[in-house]
Write a structure and sequence with these properties.
The chain has 164 residues and is an alpha+beta fold. It is 21% helix and 30% strand. It is globular, with a radius of gyration of 15 Å.
Length: 164
Amino acid sequence: MPKIAITVDATVASSIRCDEEIAGPSAYLEPEAHGTAGWPVGHGSVVNTLGDDGRPLEALVLMCEPALPGDALQARPVATLHLSTPGRAVNEVLCVAEAPCFGDLADSRDLPRWHAEPGAWAEALARLTPGRTYRVAGCGPARETEELLSAARQRYLRLTGCLE
């Protein structure tokens, strides 16, 4: 799946890290600078998209280094996190930053090996968006994420008059 541009709102530490027993000799970088818990997770919005609610799609990004609010970064979508909040359903795009250590994380089926199951993302999301209450309803594969992004780009293009 092609990379997408994300504008970061906030970053927190997470418990997401690769299972060392499965990683083997491929020498993943350890997130030592960010504690032994795991890699940082950033929250932001996907550039040039509109969700069903008329706002840009939101994204969670697993990254090597924390990002500052307002930073722009390129990320690779890997799954969709299905959330529910009182009165509506919300989908967030789960991404990984472009880095060799995340090369084998490509779809929702890879998330357990990284201890990046929906609960770990929800825990990071709760810290990234205080005041919002989300319940995790599930996690969709990369194919579903591609369809979500395509529809959101079409809505954006229609709104801006750029659709051919």
